[in-house]
Amino acid sequence: MLGVFDSGLGGLSVVRRLKERVPHHELLFFADQAHVPYGDREPNELASLLARNIHFLNHAGVSMIVMGCNTSCAIAQQFGWPASSAPIVDLIESAALVIERQGYRKVGVVATTATVRAKAYSRAITSRVPNARVFEVAEPALVPLVEAGKAGTQEAHEAVAAVCDQLPSDLDAVILACTHYPILDLHFADALGEGVALIDPAFEQAERAATLAVANGIAHGVAPSTYITSGDLEPFRTAVRMITGEFEPNVKAVAPLAR
Ligand code: DGL
């Protein structure tokens, strides 16, 4: 079983890529919607939420943790990864690998406030491509819009346009560096125009997970995937259906994880 977590619905944009790439593996997804958005929280609290989420997935018996939250990866870069018997696939590393492979040099990063503050993307990219120039910008309005089911609204369109306006116009690529943002990808494509490559790190993340699953001999699952939220069950069920395409997803609600 492969584990994925996020603050909320964004992690489902990683889950849908895993379902395409490793369709025979059972997935366990945890959305910590009791604490969404993570991006506005302080580093110490984020480190403690990360440790709880990693512990929760290990305790549930996952064989690998495929990160579905950039903000948590950024915090791990600052504080170190919590102990985990399951290997962890870092999402920021996946994005940096794409930049290196594609030869991009001038790169925009749209991410949460906490990710931008940590400068984790700049470090990960320049450690692979030393002459890369990285421009990181945040827009705190985007995650709440996706969580509220407002991805397809004028409000979302304008918020995406506003954050893209803060980026230089001659970029090679823009990374959707929060997993909620691929749900807004049409707005990003519209705002950035044709000359800029739009990168959803989830594709590379699923590719790396597939490789590691083979290398580690992780068995295919027999049970259906499970989707757990620490928030409200019914809106979560609807969002899981819409984003993953599963007709009758196995969804559950839990109390917020204990400290
Ligand atoms: N989707 C998460 C990320 O990739 C966190 C968004 C949030 O809760 O602020 O960064």
Q: How would the blueprint of this fold be written?
A:
Elements lengths: L1 E5 L5 H10 L5 E5 L11 H17 L4 E3 L3 H10 L8 E2 L1 H12 L3 E6 L1 H6 L1 H9 L4 E6 L3 H6 L6 H11 L8 E4 L8 H8 L4 E3 L2 H14 L10 E4 L3 H12 L5 E4 L6
Parallel strand pairs: 1-2, 1-3, 2-9, 3-4, 5-6, 5-7, 7-8, 9-10
The structure holds D-glutamic acid.
Can you describe this structure?
This protein is α/β, with parallel strands linked by helices and 259 residues long. The protein folds into two domains: 2-90 and 203-253, Rossmann fold, CATH 3.40.50; 92-201, Rossmann fold, CATH 3.40.50.1860. The protein is built from eleven helices and ten strands. The strands form two sheets. It has a six-stranded parallel sheet with strand order 4-3-1-2-9-10, with helices on both faces. A four-stranded parallel sheet has the order 6-5-7-8, with helices on both faces. The longest helix is centred in the N-terminal third of the chain and has 17 residues, at 43-59. It is globular and about 45 Å long. The model has no long low-confidence stretch (mean pLDDT 97). D-glutamic acid is lined by residues 6-8, 10, 36-39, 69-71, 112, 115, 143, 178-180.
Give the gist of this structure.
The protein has 259 residues and is α/β, with parallel strands linked by helices. It is built from 11 helices and 10 strands.
